[in-house]
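Continuing the batch. This is chain 6 of the set; chains 1 through 5 are on the previous pages. Same settings as before, nothing changed between runs. Recording input and output for traceability.
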Amino acid sequence: MAPLAPRIASDLVAIVATVGVLLGVSAVLLLAGYLAFAALSAENHPGAVALLDSIMTQWGERAPVDGRTINFLTGGAWEPHVPFALAAAAWFWLAVILYVLWCWLRNARQHIGVLIGVFAAVWLTTDLRWFRESTAHTQEAYRQFAGKNTEQRAVASVDSYLYFYARRIRARLEHESSRLYILHDSDWNDYLRLRLNYHLLPLNAYNFGRYPLPEYMRPGDRVLVILEVPELVFRRQDKKLVWAQGELSVVPEDFDQLATLYRYVGNPEGG
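Output for chain 6:
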């Protein structure tokens, strides 16, 4: 019987070599498949080298630090051609499939160490990238916000335009008791509407929905429409905010590229 230590070392070398081959082959197959798909699906294909360079550049980018940064575990561009996490998952599963197929063709026993090694390598690659991104973001956040009060941090943020807009609206409404209904083409947890709502505090704001709720509104209440909401239109000839389920008699009070503020004056039928 061979000594235990040399056998373990030999097994480890074999596992590492197998894992390396599997990951290398699966990476090449994934890359070739994606480039072929891109070439067939795009009319003006930039070429394999240019496309690959674009993907690698996007994976290496660092998105600016804002309120959403902490929620992106793998960093990179906001909307890359190929999300890194998706590519890592495909890399792992293709390597596993190749290993299972190779063992089946050779009628060989699968080694759990190879599967663990493939998982560990892909996980470590993803985790190291996340660590690199989180470290860079921490350093950038420190340079950007350290030693500043709440207002100074809001001004220094990449979405400071939301703060300045909200400050203008607060100045207009802070001495009134009216309610503010925030409308946006999104669900309640959209970042833009929540961030703007935060900057509008302590105004009495109701931040949900895409369309007004006339049954809950009183004359003097405000409606803040962020960007554009489909089928919600301001009809200038009779000064009404109109959508499929109803209408509101309103007066525009503030126009901005970000949002439009309206004052509800009450509907003739008793609103």
